[in-house]
């Protein structure tokens, strides 16, 4: 079905608290330093094995300030980035080889069957309602060429528990209710103020993601734990600083990335699929 792309460009809008969270401008630095580099390098590692050869056209939906768009463009891909946060779009637009525009994953302005790859490396976990997640995946299907690839990131259901056990925040009586609520129904609800751990988000069970793909008309083709269990190792940042140790960490995670019993241990999960 054809879409009114002028109307789609307006989008349904981003929740106010999510916009406020990302306007703090912390996400870019999080992925480029410390333990956050594990998420960046593992996502890069998996994508480089899944993507078609450059110069395929990639639509990076919810691509933030362009952390992934930057290396994709350097690899020779034609990269268009869409993000609902104006600050992100402004930063991404400065990157060589990247075009950036304001938009919403649920109402893309791109024409039907116009791209080879759609990346959704952030939108799905900021859409708490399943209908909105399926809508975003259906939009990815619409703009993909037949046989095109979609890769979506989700946060795993027990990520908040694992993370905050590791940091010790789980033992803080003021933080624990927010963590335990997310375990119960997958919904992270911001409490406001310094005690809020994250913004509005939805944390998936790994097995639920392929069903959302299917409801959007996409065929899932694999799931990959991004950080595995390594993100819970106390000195992982130090290991990432050493190139030889970093390669050993990445090699170990490749060996376990798609083991079904280990998918949920990872903080993030990548699910790959195709437009039939």
UniProtKB/TrEMBL annotation:
Residues 59-151 form the Methyltransferase type domain. Keywords: Methyltransferase, S-adenosyl-L-methionine, Transferase. Gene3D superfamilies: Vaccinia Virus protein VP39. The keyword Transferase applies. CDD domains: AdoMet_MTases (cd02440). SUPFAM superfamilies: S-adenosyl-L-methionine-dependent methyltransferases. Coiled coil: none annotated. Pfam families: Methyltransf_11. The keyword S-adenosyl-L-methionine applies. One of its GO terms (molecular function) is S-adenosylmethionine-dependent methyltransferase activity. GO terms for biological process: methylation. This is SAM-dependent methyltransferase. It comes from Streptomyces cellostaticus.
């Amino acid at each position: 079905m054809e879409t009114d792309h002028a109307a789609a460009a307006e989008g349904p809008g981003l929740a106010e608290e999510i916009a406020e969270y990302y306007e703090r401008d912390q996400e870019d630095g999080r992925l480029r330093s410390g333990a956050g580099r594990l998420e960046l390098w593992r996502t890069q590692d998996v994508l480089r094995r899944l993507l078609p050869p450059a110069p395929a056209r990639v639509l990076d939906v919810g691509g933030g300030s362009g952390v992934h768009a930057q290396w994709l463009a350097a690899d020779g891909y034609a990269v268009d980035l869409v993000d609902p946060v104006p600050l992100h779009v402004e930063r991404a637009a400065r990157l060589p080889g990247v075009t950036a525009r304001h938009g919403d994953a649920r109402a893309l302005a791109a024409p039907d069957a116009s791209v080879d790859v759609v990346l959704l490396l952030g939108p799905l976990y900021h859409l708490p309602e399943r209908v909105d997640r399926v809508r975003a995946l259906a939009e990815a299907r619409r703009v993909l060429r037949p046989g095109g690839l979609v890769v979506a990131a989700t946060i795993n259901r027990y990520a908040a528990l694992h993370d905050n056990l590791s940091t010790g925040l789980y033992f803080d009586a003021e933080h624990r209710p927010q963590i335990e609520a997310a375990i119960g129904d997958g919904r992270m609800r911001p409490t406001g103020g310094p005690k809020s751990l994250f913004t509005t988000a939805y944390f998936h069970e790994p097995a639920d993601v392929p069903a959302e793909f299917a409801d959007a008309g996409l065929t899932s083709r694999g799931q990959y734990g991004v950080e595995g269990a390594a993100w819970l190792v106390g000195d992982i940042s130090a290991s990432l600083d050493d190139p030889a140790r970093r390669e050993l960490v990445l090699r170990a995670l490749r060996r376990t990335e798609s083991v079904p019993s280990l998918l949920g241990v990872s903080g993030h999960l990548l699910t790959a699929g195709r437009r039939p």
